[in-house]
Design a protein that fits this description.
Blueprint: E1 3-4, H1 6-13, H2 17-25, E2 32-34, E3 37-41, H3 42-62, H4 73-79
Antiparallel strand pairs: 1-3, 2-3
Length: 80
């Protein structure tokens, strides 16, 4: 089992650290607060990325290969 911090999760997802932290605070990404920071399982972050890829690919297929100007799943999840 490999653990990562918020910065590591942000790097894996290619997002800003604050975006990764919002996903954790809102319970979208599972994490534990240990000491002054969060600890995440790398596999959970990778599973989240995989789910986003599957979801966005399905949307593209529904629209005939064109996603257009839709919000990303990360942005949509943060607004919910």
């Amino acid at each position: 089992m490999t653990t990562i911090d918020i910065k590591g999760a942000a790097r894996l997802m290619n997002v800003h650290v604050r975006t990764a932290e919002k996903l954790v605070v809102r319970g979208i990404l599972p994490a534990a607060r240990i000491g002054h920071g969060y600890v995440l399982m790398e596999r959970d972050v990778l599973a989240y990325i995989e789910a986003q890829i599957a979801s966005q690919t399905a949307l593209k297929r529904e629209k005939g290969g064109r996603q257009g100007k839709t919000r990303t799943a990360v942005a949509a999840g943060l607004e919910a």
